[in-house]
From TrEMBL:
Protein name per UniProt: Mor family transcriptional regulator
Domain of life, source organism: Bacteria
Domain Mor transcription activator: 12-90
One Pfam family it belongs to: Mor
SUPFAM superfamilies: Homeodomain-like
Coiled-coil stretches noted in the UniProt entry, renumbered to this chain: none
Length: 98
Protein backbone atom coordinates (compact mmCIF):
# COMPACT_ATOMS: atom_id res chain seq x y z
CA UNK A 1 0.00 0.00 0.00
CA UNK A 2 1.42 3.37 -0.90
CA UNK A 3 0.68 6.70 0.68
CA UNK A 4 -1.16 9.41 -1.20
CA UNK A 5 -0.91 13.08 -0.28
CA UNK A 6 -4.37 14.23 0.78
CA UNK A 7 -3.80 17.61 -0.92
CA UNK A 8 -3.67 15.77 -4.24
CA UNK A 9 -7.10 14.14 -3.91
CA UNK A 10 -9.25 15.77 -1.22
CA UNK A 11 -10.97 19.16 -1.18
CA UNK A 12 -9.40 21.71 1.19
CA UNK A 13 -12.44 21.86 3.48
CA UNK A 14 -12.33 18.09 4.06
CA UNK A 15 -8.59 18.29 4.84
CA UNK A 16 -9.27 21.02 7.43
CA UNK A 17 -11.91 18.84 9.13
CA UNK A 18 -9.53 15.85 9.20
CA UNK A 19 -6.75 18.05 10.61
CA UNK A 20 -8.98 18.83 13.59
CA UNK A 21 -8.72 15.15 14.54
CA UNK A 22 -5.34 14.10 13.12
CA UNK A 23 -2.80 16.80 12.33
CA UNK A 24 0.31 15.70 10.48
CA UNK A 25 -0.09 12.00 11.33
CA UNK A 26 -0.59 9.03 9.07
CA UNK A 27 -4.21 8.03 8.69
CA UNK A 28 -5.40 4.70 7.36
CA UNK A 29 -8.74 4.79 5.58
CA UNK A 30 -10.12 1.25 5.28
CA UNK A 31 -11.88 -0.05 2.19
CA UNK A 32 -15.65 0.00 2.12
CA UNK A 33 -16.94 -3.26 3.53
CA UNK A 34 -18.30 -4.42 0.18
CA UNK A 35 -14.89 -3.81 -1.43
CA UNK A 36 -12.81 -5.70 1.13
CA UNK A 37 -11.02 -8.82 0.01
CA UNK A 38 -10.21 -11.80 2.18
CA UNK A 39 -6.63 -12.76 2.93
CA UNK A 40 -4.81 -14.04 -0.14
CA UNK A 41 -7.48 -13.17 -2.70
CA UNK A 42 -5.50 -10.36 -4.24
CA UNK A 43 -2.17 -12.22 -4.43
CA UNK A 44 -3.61 -15.62 -5.33
CA UNK A 45 -2.18 -17.22 -2.19
CA UNK A 46 -5.59 -18.41 -1.04
CA UNK A 47 -6.21 -20.24 -4.32
CA UNK A 48 -2.69 -21.72 -4.36
CA UNK A 49 -3.13 -23.13 -0.83
CA UNK A 50 -6.54 -24.50 -1.77
CA UNK A 51 -5.01 -26.36 -4.75
CA UNK A 52 -2.13 -27.62 -2.58
CA UNK A 53 -4.51 -28.92 0.07
CA UNK A 54 -6.62 -30.74 -2.52
CA UNK A 55 -3.42 -32.25 -3.92
CA UNK A 56 -2.34 -33.41 -0.45
CA UNK A 57 -5.75 -35.00 0.19
CA UNK A 58 -5.72 -36.66 -3.23
CA UNK A 59 -2.27 -38.16 -2.63
CA UNK A 60 -3.32 -39.33 0.84
CA UNK A 61 -6.47 -40.91 -0.62
CA UNK A 62 -4.29 -42.80 -3.10
CA UNK A 63 -2.13 -44.24 -0.31
CA UNK A 64 0.56 -41.67 0.50
CA UNK A 65 1.60 -41.71 4.15
CA UNK A 66 1.31 -38.64 6.36
CA UNK A 67 5.05 -38.56 7.00
CA UNK A 68 5.80 -38.73 3.25
CA UNK A 69 3.45 -35.80 2.62
CA UNK A 70 4.95 -33.93 5.54
CA UNK A 71 8.42 -34.20 4.02
CA UNK A 72 7.26 -33.45 0.48
CA UNK A 73 5.36 -30.28 1.43
CA UNK A 74 7.64 -29.16 4.28
CA UNK A 75 4.75 -29.23 6.75
CA UNK A 76 4.40 -30.85 10.14
CA UNK A 77 2.53 -34.14 10.34
CA UNK A 78 -0.04 -32.28 12.48
CA UNK A 79 -0.61 -29.78 9.64
CA UNK A 80 -0.97 -32.59 7.10
CA UNK A 81 -3.51 -34.35 9.33
CA UNK A 82 -5.46 -31.08 9.73
CA UNK A 83 -5.49 -30.53 5.95
CA UNK A 84 -6.68 -34.11 5.36
CA UNK A 85 -9.42 -33.72 7.97
CA UNK A 86 -10.56 -30.37 6.54
CA UNK A 87 -10.59 -31.73 2.99
CA UNK A 88 -12.56 -34.78 4.11
CA UNK A 89 -15.22 -32.48 5.57
CA UNK A 90 -15.33 -30.45 2.37
CA UNK A 91 -15.68 -33.60 0.26
CA UNK A 92 -18.54 -34.81 2.48
CA UNK A 93 -20.37 -31.51 2.06
CA UNK A 94 -19.90 -31.59 -1.72
CA UNK A 95 -21.16 -35.17 -1.98
CA UNK A 96 -24.14 -34.38 0.24
CA UNK A 97 -23.38 -37.06 2.84
CA UNK A 98 -24.26 -36.11 6.45
Amino acid sequence: MKYINAHNILPKDIIKVIQEYVDGEYLYIPRREEEQKRWGERSGSREALKRRNIEIYDKYSKGAKVMELSEEYYLSDKSIRRIISDQKKIMLKVSGDP
